[in-house]
Amino acid sequence: MKLVTVMVVMLISWCVYTVAVRHSALPPWPHPRNLRLSTSALGWLAHSSLPHIFGIIAIFIALGHSVLAMSGEESLAQVYREIESPKLPNLKKAGAVIFIYSLVFTSLVSFFAVMIIPDGVRQQFLENLIGGLAMNLQGPLFARLIFHGFVVVVGTLILAGAVNTAIVGSNGVLNRVSEDGVLSSWFRQPHKKFGTSYRIINIVVALQVVTIIISRGDVTFLANLYAFGVIWSFAMNGLAVLVLRYTNPGQREFQVPLNFTVRGVQIPVGLALITSMLFLIAVVNLFTKPIATMAGGTFSVLLYIVFTISERRGRHGGAAHVEMDQFNLELESELTPEAVGARPGNILVPISNHYALYHLGNVLDRIKPGRRDVVVLHVRLLRRSASGENEFEADQLFGSIEQQLFSQALSMAEKRGKSIRLAVVAANDLWDGILRAGASLRSSTIVAGRSTKESNEEQARQIGEAWEKLGDQKPQFNLEIHLPNGDKLYKVLGPHAPNLTANEVNLLHRMWLRFSDAVAPLEMHHHDVVHFALEEVQKEVEEGHEDDVVNRLRAHLEEIQKKKAPKT
Hints:
Elements (H helix, E strand, L loop, with lengths): L1 H21 L16 H4 L7 H4 L1 H11 L5 H9 L7 H30 L2 H4 L6 H7 L5 H39 L18 H18 L3 H29 L11 E4 L2 E4 H20 L1 H27 L20 H4 L6 E4 L7 H9 L7 E8 L12 H4 L2 H16 L5 E7 L2 H12 L3 E5 L6 H13 L8 E6 L5 E6 L8 H15 L9 H17 L3 H19 L4
Parallel strand pairs: 3-4, 3-6, 4-5, 6-7
Antiparallel strand pairs: 1-2, 7-8
């Protein structure tokens, strides 16, 4: 985002300078006599006189072509669960920033393109207006070439982020579709190593590659396809919210303005106007983008057929699935020891992949019945998808994947003659959900398996950072990270006495011997040496010598690593 902002500021500043030097004229007003709509812009309306008679239709056509600028607002629907508290004010701020950024940048690029790029050359840059602007700015050629290269790099990063966002968003939506029974649970089977819904991810990536191959990388065609999906997604979302005003009435934290009540019935005029505007743009897009309309319509029909067949097969073939344990679900507003039937001081074992339950097996092997309770926890991550504002129902939190996971955990416990308690929680972040569940359950120990993505120390660091975000009341946990080979790492979450090595203890003792006689007859203990050293470091930091302290600390750590490194 910072790199994009730098590029935008440089581009706008350079364009303003170019316009001032060349005394470029502003584009004409959008009056019907000034409108020059090409055949490609009009699509199926090319032979109609309506766009030339009614200027409002031409404006809707222009809005349809610039709908890609609204894609930033679409991203809010995917990441709104990750926005920090207070969520609603921050969501409004993010939406305002994206709106202003998109409006200013998109409109200015179009205006500057008309004012700066010559009419005879502009047609060559319709698929890359920013690149065309970079090469037609006022200045030496080498500077324009360097800036053009910078624009290409930034564009690559933007598109890479867009591809990643598309994968994450599609994965979240298809997971919800699978959870609702429209798609088979086969799609959500976790990866044996990483625990991700890899089949959905692979299908999404494959479809992306196929789309690029079929389109032959035609930017205009891909942009029109994306615009087709964005505008109809917005229109349907608007219609859904409008319908919910009547099917699920009641007070909401936020409502679109312009609401009137007539005989006890609320009339959401503002929401209806927005929905109508979106549908008008969508309908105009149907006629002005014929290729995208046919391709998008075909894909929508195929997707509907696939979903319908999959749902019907799932209903008829449900009895043929492997038999699993059945669970009675109890939805609790708060997770407490009483709610799960566990005593305080229990062992919390988070699980996410039925292929990697070795840490649960280690805990079951070592505990003695009746001594300590074991709570098996599954954290249901809230994926980046356009979910509603209501809380999850029990069947949304506990699907076939969770059923299979807990069935495997129960089977392991039964084979060892041990009992376990089961719990499912929803969270945006894995370790935030685990630690908050541990605090609510008053667990003393958390036993986790090794991460397949990060190193052991990096995993421990991330857990420590999540613990720091818990709030003022931070309980202390004993953390165990079990490795598949049987090794274990032990950590303590929270303030605790450090485990000093023999050399560190000897150094502390030598310092105590050296200074105890010097400060006599005052009594001095070993902890006084540590306290004094820490206060001296804190004083240096407060006096503005933090960089020097950090450099010395870094040199000290590097020296320790050299001593630990094996000699060759």
